[in-house]
Write a structure and sequence with these properties.
With about 375 residues, the protein is an alpha/beta fold. It contains twelve helices and twelve strands. Helix 7 runs antiparallel to helix 8 (about 255-275). It has a single domain (about 105-385), classed as Alpha-Beta Complex (Spore Coat Polysaccharide Biosynthesis Protein SpsA, Chain A). The protein is globular, with a radius of gyration of 21 Å. The chain is about 35% helix and about 10% strand. It has an eight-stranded mixed sheet with strand order 1-10-11-6-9-4-2-3. A two-stranded antiparallel ribbon has the order 5-12. The structure holds 2-acetamido-2-deoxy-beta-D-glucopyranose (2 copies). The site of one 2-acetamido-2-deoxy-beta-D-glucopyranose (NAG) has 5 residues, from helix 8 and helix 10. Its main location: membrane. It is a single-pass type II membrane protein; Single-pass membrane protein. Keywords: Glycosyltransferase, Golgi apparatus, Membrane, Signal, Signal-anchor, Transferase, Transmembrane, Transmembrane helix. It is found in: Endomembrane system; Golgi apparatus membrane. One of its GO terms (molecular function) is alpha-1,6-mannosyltransferase activity.
Amino acid sequence: MLTFRRALLVAAVFITMLYLVTRTHAPSPMDQIPPQAESWPASNTEGHTTRTGYTPTTPVSTKGSDRMPQAKKPKTHGQQQLLQDMSRAPLKDKLAYQFPYDVETKFPAYIWQTWKYTPASGDFGENLRPAEASWSEKHPGFIHEVITDQVAVHLLRHLYVAVPEVLEAYQSLPLPVLKADFFRYLILLARGGIYSDIDTHALKSAAEWLPESVPREAIGLVIGIEADPDREDWADWYSRRIQFCQWTIQSKPGHPVLRDVVANITQETLKKKKEGSLKSFKGKNVIEFTGPALWTDTIFKFLNDDKYFDMSTGKGNITWEDFTGMTTAKKVGDVVVLPITSFSPGVQQMGAEDYDHPMAFVKHEFEGTWKPESERHIGAEVKEEGQ
Ligand SMILES: *[C@@H]1O[C@H](CO)[C@@H](O)[C@H](O)[C@H]1NC(C)=O
Ligand SMILES: *[C@@H]1O[C@H](CO)[C@@H](O)[C@H](O)[C@H]1NC(C)=O
């Protein structure tokens, strides 16, 4: 019985590998952030038409610090030498080399989810089937993968073979919820597409998330707002005044925000491991360590990073004030931020509209019946030992 299941698992892993592992990597311009920072639709006059303190930017690709200093021409060094050079490079540079970002590519037609079981399993959970099916129904032609923990290990081992510290960090994370958080960033960095928690329903196709007028070749990351608590005591309820959600993310592979968040979690994890504080890590700080607080901070850091954007002509930083109260999507550089209604409809607070609103794209099961943040991950947990 066990052997048979093992055999099935091996077969499943193999088949998954076959079509996930198709792209080869070539060094290419790292970051080609388009030089616009603007709100749209242009006709929107709901107070978000102008940016405060933020001006158009220049592409970063000519700046030295974010490029691969060691990615020398193979003709003089050969593959071996190149790999050696890379193994000594800073983590972010290695990641940029492995997963180059090209904003002009298409959004890959992947939908990634994680769960203890695949939908083919009788144990999958009947209550989750309509949600899972909604993603396939709304996205014909997409490759829709529900990745179990065992498959995740094999997949990551393949994708990150050249960045062993990332694998060490993943394997060292002491809680399934931390791995579930880390996995979504890792798979999007390496392959791109849509990640969405297993307890989310697709209300609309991702093809409709961005208005027709927005050129897809200028966008590399699409995010939504989880929380925009306009109240004095917001800190009692949320960890950031504006919190971006990470239960649904769309990206192109190699996006710098994903690279930054993966480097951050890797380094923080290995630091904690060295200090010996990882084993005693408790669930309370998940939000800061790998969850939406870290995600939100990483996005703001990116938007205010002079490596990527020309900040010299601006009047100040991008802050929560640029995104509070939004009712239409907003584009900053190559990032589109959707209003709270898009990924958090029906929460009946913070300005979110209901599920039937035209801007409602994804329904998150736990958001309908609002739960405190500490419980937010229950649906996303990936069990450690599947058997
Ligand atoms: C990771 O991000 C957090 C939040 O922004 C920051 O406090 C921390 O210093 C970062 N760690 C590393 C290693 O970059
Ligand atoms: C903008 O943010 C950077 C770091 O994110 C900080 O060093 C700088 O002081 C901020 N500038 C302003 C005007 O707040």
